[in-house]
């Protein structure tokens, strides 16, 4: 066995050395490319524009995956060539097979093309809070053909780009906390609006929240009539990704202000009514009749 192995090595040592060199060069190329990508990713952290930095970050990750696949394919082709397998017919066959697969894998092609446009146009970047294909959550990763969302419950949603028809980006550019607050029909609408505006202005001047609020509160007014409440609608402009913090503090202050001013926030109530049922007199009548007409006597 050793003898045959030595014979094979003597006959094909040039090919074996070439294969080793190809493998080493492929690995080195992948390593160098990975280092360059990593350095670029580190540089994106210094970009002041957060959205632009995240977009570049996403593109670099996709480029790294694409380059890794390309290097692997080239290495495999060169190794096959060194093994004496003619790669020309393989490439031609791959073209025909690729064309056939292309018709059957239109969804895959659509995933890749749509994904590139979504990333290049800056519609979605890693870290954004979005609504896509009926799911909402934080964008964790973007690959060549899928986007991964993590929702508030911790569930991971993997969505192919071919299913992406509409993208709702909640955290891009200007953010708002939009509120709808219900108050009793007995309340004065103007007083309620004045109270909400005061709460919004106090929040904007607060030292801990003025850096999170990006403008004055806008109270649109009475928006609709509900079953047990009138709905006042408005919004507060906030700094990027700070709308949830502002919402919680605003709601807390509204509750305190409403309690202080005696403004009622209605809540669903259930009224239970019942009536006492009339007792039947049948039993009493039967008893009286038995006393008047005995059922029998000792003579019978």
Describe, in plain words, how this protein is organized in 3D.
The protein is of the alpha+beta class. It has three domains: 2-104, Helix Hairpins (Orthogonal Bundle); 129-169, SH3 type barrels (Roll); 175-261, Alpha-Beta Plaits (2-Layer Sandwich), CATH 3.30.70.100. The protein is 52% helix and 17% strand. The protein contains seven helices and eight strands, in the order ααααββββββαββαα. It has a five-stranded antiparallel β-sheet. A three-stranded antiparallel β-sheet has the order 6-8-7. A hairpin with a 4-residue loop joins strand 7 and strand 8 (230-238). The protein is elongated.
What descriptors fit this protein?
Alpha-Beta Plaits, Helix Hairpins, 7 helices, 5-stranded antiparallel sheet, SH3 type barrels, alpha+beta, 8 strands, 300 residues
List the SSEs and their pairings.
Layout: H1 2-44, H2 50-82, H3 87-104, H4 106-120, E1 129-132, E2 135-142, E3 146-150, E4 156-160, E5 167-169, E6 175-183, H5 189-205, E7 218-225, E8 230-238, H6 243-261, H7 282-292
Antiparallel strand pairs: 1-2, 1-5, 2-3, 3-4, 6-8, 7-8
């Amino acid at each position: 066995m050793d003898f045959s192995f030595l014979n094979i090595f003597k006959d094909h040592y040039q090919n074996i050395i070439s294969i080793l060199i190809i493998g080493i060069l492929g690995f080195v190329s992948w390593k160098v490319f990975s280092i360059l990508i990593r350095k670029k990713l580190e540089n994106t952290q210094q970009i002041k524009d957060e959205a632009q930095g995240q977009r570049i970050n996403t593109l670099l990750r996709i480029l790294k995956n694409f380059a890794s696949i390309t290097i692997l394919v080239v290495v495999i082709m060169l190794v096959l060539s060194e093994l004496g397998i003619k790669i020309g017919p393989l490439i031609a066959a791959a073209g025909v097979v690729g064309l056939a697969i292309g018709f059957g894998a239109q969804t895959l092609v659509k995933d890749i093309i749509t994904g590139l446009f979504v990333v290049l146009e800056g519609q979605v970047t890693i870290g954004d809070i979005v609504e896509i294909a009926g799911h909402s959550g934080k964008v964790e990763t973007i690959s060549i053909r899928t986007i991964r969302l993590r929702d508030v419950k911790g569930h991971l949603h993997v969505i192919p780009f071919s299913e992406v028809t509409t993208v709702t980006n909640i955290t891009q550019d200007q953010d708002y906390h939009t509120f709808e607050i219900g108050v009793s029909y007995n309340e004065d609408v103007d007083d309620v609006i004045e109270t909400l505006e005061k709460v919004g202005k106090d929040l904007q001047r607060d030292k801990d929240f003025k850096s999170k609020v990006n403008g004055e509160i806008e109270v649109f007014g009475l928006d609709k009539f509900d079953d047990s409440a009138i709905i006042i609608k408005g919004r507060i402009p906030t700094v990027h990704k700070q709308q949830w913090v502002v919402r919680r503090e605003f709601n807390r202050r509204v509750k305190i202000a409403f309690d202080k001013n005696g403004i009622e926030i209605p809540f669903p109530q259930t009224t239970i009514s019942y009536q006492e049922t009339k007792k039947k007199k049948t039993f009493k009548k039967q008893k009286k009749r038995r006393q008047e007409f005995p059922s029998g006597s000792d003579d019978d």
